[in-house]
Amino acid sequence: MRRLLAILLAAALSAPLSFSQTSRREIYADIYRTGSNYFAYPGPVQKNLTAAPSGYEPFFISHYGRHGSRYMSSNKYYVSSIETLEKAEAQGLLSSKGKEVLSLLKKGYANAFNRDGDLTALGGQQHREIAGRMYSRFPELLSRPVEVDARSSTSRRVMISMFNFCGELQSLNPHLEITMDASSRDMKWVVEDLDIKPAETPASAQYEKKRAAIMEKAHDSRRLMKSLFTDPKKAESFVKGRDLMEALYNVAEDLQNVPETGLSLIGIFTKEELFSMWTGYNAGWLLNTGLVPGSTPYYLQQKEVMDSILVTADRHVREGAPGLSLRFSHDSSVLPLAYLLGLKEAMGGVTDIDNIYKYISIDKIIPMAANIQIIFYRKEGRVG
Q1: Which residues does 217 contact at the CB level (< 8 Å), separation at least 6?
Q2: Helix (H, G, I), strand (E, B) or coil at 118
Q3: Any residues with CB less than 8 A from the CB of 71 and at least 6 apart, and which?
Q4: I want to staple 328 with a disulfide (CB 3.0 to 4.6 A). Which of 24, 122, 152, 354 is the partner?
Q5: Structural fold of domain 2-70+135-220+271-379
Q6: 348: which residues sit within 8 A by CB, 6+ positions away?
Q7: Which candidate, 293, 311, 252, 323, places its Cα nearest to that of 38?
Q8: Are 278 and 33 in contact (CB under 8 A)?
C-alpha cells in the first residue's frame, strides 16, 4: 500500500503547478457557476483522454463521486421568501417585478414541496451519462463479466444516484457482477468522519472575520429591494433585505437543477451581485475544508476514506484482479478528497481571502455529480 501511495503522490506532484486562475470574465460567461455547489454538472471539459501507454490496458477503476443534481436540502428559502413577499403584497407594496417573482416562487415551491434534498430527474441523468462515458472509454474492462463493488452514503439522493449509475452499467453489460450497499457500517469509508476534531488554528478566526465581511458586503440588498417593492423604506419595517437576498439566491441557483420546470430567477440579480455572493460562499467552503493556508485542517476528516480507497486499489494491484470500486458521497466529501489526492483544482490556496477564488473555485471541483476517477493499467494479457 505504501508503494501505491507513493505512486499516486508522485503522479499528483509531477503535474506542473501552473494553476488556472478563475477570472470575473470566466464567471460572467457562465453565470450559473456562481451557484458554487449548486452548479449543475457541466459534463467533461476534456473531450479526449490522454492515451494509455502502448501495450497497457485498464484493469481497475476507483471512482468517487457526489450525488447528482438535487432539490435544496431544505425548502426554508422558498417558505421565507414567499411569506415575505405575500406580506408585502397584502400591504400593496409589491412592484410588478415583485409580483412576478412571487408567482415564480410559488410555482417552484409547488414542484419542490416535500422534496427537500431529493435527487432531481437531472441528477439521475447525470449519473447515467457518467456511467455511459466510463463504459465507452474503457470497453476492454467493462465489456467483461467483472465485479463491481458500489457503496453509497445512507442519504436517499446518494443511494438513488448509485442506482442510476449501476443501472446504466448493467444495461450496457448484463454480465457485470454488481453489488450495491448503503450501510451505516460503511459510512467511515464513504464520507468524512465528523468525530475527528482537528485543533482550530489561531488564523482561522481572523479568516472567518474576513469571510463574514465579504458576505455582508455581497448581500447589499438596496437595489433588489427597490426592484421588488414600491416603497422599499416602508418594506424595511418587516423585511430583512439581507435574509431575503440570501433566500432568493439559493432558490435561483438551485432552479438550474430542475430545468424541466422552465423556471428561472437568476435574472433578478445583477451579474456583479451574483459574483460577489459567489466569492463569499467559495471562501466559506475553502475555510470549512481547511484549504486556506493556516486554517483548521478539516480535510483530515476524510483521511480514512482516502486510506480505504488506497487499500482497495492496492489489493487489486497486488492480486491483479480486474474490477470497479464505486463510492457515492457528498460535496463535503469530494472537496477534501480532491485536496488529499493533490488534484490541481484543489491546490494553490492563498491567505488572501478576498481573492482566493482566483486560485480555487469550488464550482470546478464539487458541482452536482462531481466525480474523481482513478484508472489503473497493466500490461496487456497479464493475469494476476
Answers
A1: 276
A2: coil
A3: 112, 115, 116, 117, 118, 120, 254, 257, 258
A4: 152
A5: Rossmann fold (3.40.50)
A6: 17, 19, 359, 360
A7: 252
A8: yes
363 DSSP assignment: G
Strand order in the sheet with 56-66: 177-181, 147-152, 323-329, 56-66, 371-379
Helices (H), 255-369: 271-289, 303-319, 331-340
Phi (first) and psi of residue 232, to 5 degrees: -55, -35
Retrieve residue 203's grid coordinates.
488564523
Per-residue model confidence as pLDDT tens digits over 297-343: 999 999 999 999 999 999 999 998 899 999 999 999 999 999 999 99
CA distance 324 to 376: 10
Q: At 308, list the grid cell.
A: 480505504
Distance in angstroms (rounded) separating the CA atoms of residues 1 and 280: 39
What are the grid coordinates assigned to 171, written together? 444495461
Q: What is the CA radius of gyration of the chain?
A: 23
3-state class (DSSP) for residue 65: strand
C-alpha cell at 219: 448581500
Tell me the residue type at 113: F
Cα separation, 85 vs 92, in Å, equals 10
User: How remote is the C-alpha of 20 from its chain's centroid?
Assistant: 19
- DSSP, collapsed to helix, strand or coil, labels residue 139 as helix
Mean pLDDT in order along the chain per 10 residues (384 residues):
42 38 90 97 80 87 98 98 98 98 98 98 98 96 96 97 98 98 92 94 95 95 98 96 98 98 98 97 97 97 95 93 96 97 95 96 97 92 58
CB 47 within 8 A of CB 367: no
For residue 379, count CB atoms less than 10 angstroms from its CB and return exposed for 0-12, middle for 13-18, buried for 19 or more: exposed
